From TrEMBL, chain A:
InterPro entries attached to this UniProt entry: MetalloPept_cat_dom_sf
Protein name: Uncharacterized protein
Highest taxon above the source species: Bacteria
SUPFAM superfamilies in UniProt: Metalloproteases ('zincins'), catalytic domain (SSF55486)
GO terms assigned for molecular function: metallopeptidase activity
TrEMBL record, chain B:
Keyword set, alphabetical order: Signal
KW Signal (keyword) present: yes
Secretion signal, residue range per the UniProt entry: 1-21
Protein name according to UniProt: Putative secreted protein
Organism expressing this protein natively: Herbinix hemicellulosilytica
Length: 207, 210
């Protein structure tokens, strides 16, 4: 009787794990980049942080945020060049500019013609040729009673780079950098790239 | 014969009056492509937090489109300006004040985070960072607003958490019965769950619409 109960519990646990894995699969885009796109996650993302961002926040938050994504898998950040160094031949721009308090940061996807694409459409199709990231230049947006201004800023940059890897906002409350909002020490919003984020990256781009 | 003519005249007049009451943005084709942007958002847990963040809380009528501001970055490979962040400025006229240093009749600048962009093929697209559809000219809304010094206007606190259409009796009844769904609120886009909206909607109804 006890053995049966244990088997039943194991079966339920297995189902729950499979369910979680399947659902987490919905948290990244089904699509990808145009084959001819010169910058892609599997050949290494190259970012150029321009004057607007460097003059506002310095270089370290951007470098710190970008390389936190790297690990033992195919998709990675290969280069972060900051102003005043010259731009790499091919790159995605990270800039800072005014936005309302509602938006700490934003990611843009473009076609080969330079047309903006709806983010969900972009992530689920193979139309992306270019990306760019904008961080709010109003630094008080990152003021929060629970975390330091700098932690929230770095979280935002990491989050936006996650979108460039085609990760979406998670549908389940597991701990992830890809949830919107200020990070918390115990809730679902992380300030670091988590195991689940890396798992999504592997599921999306390969080990 | 005269009576029929009078009736037709009355009907035409009524149609004109109804169409004048709320007007969509005239530059915007009804079948325009909508581009929703992937943005990091700030939301609030409850109405108290939203009200604390607000510079003013008012009911106001959307009176005039004051144009749009769009930022671009230059792409060296594509050799063209690519659009990034932008917003449309609306003039709104205050009809009731709940909080803040404004009075009835004041005209304010409301920033709505969307803009119209012309693509490489000449077609137009509506690019938006907001979950709220472009406002209707002539319509009244409850607005929980924060002043944006860097942008020179007001934005709604927490995006969709800071703007509410005046509910019809039908919507009020559905909310009270707990049967309201997002599709019942025409001012929001319906392709995301708006998890932070429903928990505070009842509070808003109690406080501002009863």
């Amino acid at each position: 009787m006890k053995k049966r109960k244990s088997i039943f519990l194991l079966f339920i646990m297995l189902l729950l794990i499979i369910n979680t894995l399947l659902l987490s699969g919905a948290d990244y885009g089904k699509g990808g980049y145009v084959l001819s796109a010169p910058v892609q996650p599997t050949t290494g993302l190259k970012f150029y942080v321009d004057y607007s961002a460097i003059s506002k926040y310095g270089s370290s938050p951007f470098i710190n945020a970008a390389f936190n994504w790297n690990g033992d898998y195919k998709a990675y950040v290969s280069q972060v060049v900051v102003y005043p160094a010259s731009r790499p031949a091919e790159h995605f721009v990270i800039e800072a500019g005014p936005m309302t308090y509602n938006h700490p940061g934003e990611t843009y996807f473009y076609t080969i013609n330079g047309d903006l694409i709806d983010s969900n459409t972009a992530m689920d199709s193979n139309l992306i040729y270019r990306c760019s990231i904008r961080i709010n230049s109003n630094s008080s947006v990152f003021d929060n009673p629970n975390v330091s201004n700098q932690t929230y800023l770095i979280k935002t940059i990491r989050h936006e780079i996650g979108h460039v890897f085609l990760l979406k906002h998670p549908t389940l409350p597991y701990r992830s950098i890809m949830h919107s909002g200020a990070p918390t020490s115990s809730g679902s919003v992380s300030d670091e790239v988590t195991t689940m984020d890396r798992q999504n990256l592997i599921s999306k781009w390969g080990q | 014969m005269k009576k029929i003519g009078l009736c037709i005249m009355c009907m035409i007049l009524m149609l004109v009056l109804v169409s004048c009451k709320t007007k969509k943005d005239s530059d915007m084709p009804s079948d325009i492509e909508v581009v929703r942007l992937q943005s990091e958002r700030t939301y609030y847990e409850n109405l108290e937090q939203i009200e604390d963040q607000a510079t003013i809380i008012v009911k106001a009528v959307v009176s005039e489109n004051l144009g749009q501001e769009v930022d671009t970055i230059y792409d060296y490979a594509l050799q063209k300006e690519l659009p990034t962040y932008g917003y449309t400025k609306w003039e709104v006229e205050v009809t009731k004040v709940y909080k803040g240093d404004v009075k009835v009749g004041d005209k304010l600048v409301l920033l709505q985070e969307y803009y119209i962009w012309t693509k490489s093929d000449g077609k137009k697209q509506l690019v938006t960072s907001s979950s709220v559809k472009p406002l209707n000219q002539g319509e009244e809304y409850l607005m929980i607003l924060r002043y944006e010094e860097m942008l020179g206007g007001y934005s709604t606190v927490g995006d969709y958490q800071g703007i509410f259409a005046i509910p019809t009796d039908e919507v009020m009844a559905m909310i009270e019965d707990g049967k309201a769904e997002k599709s019942d609120f025409d001012i929001y886009y319906d392709d995301e769950p708006l998890n932070y909206l429903f928990p505070l909607y009842n509070e808003v109804i109690e406080k501002y619409f009863k």
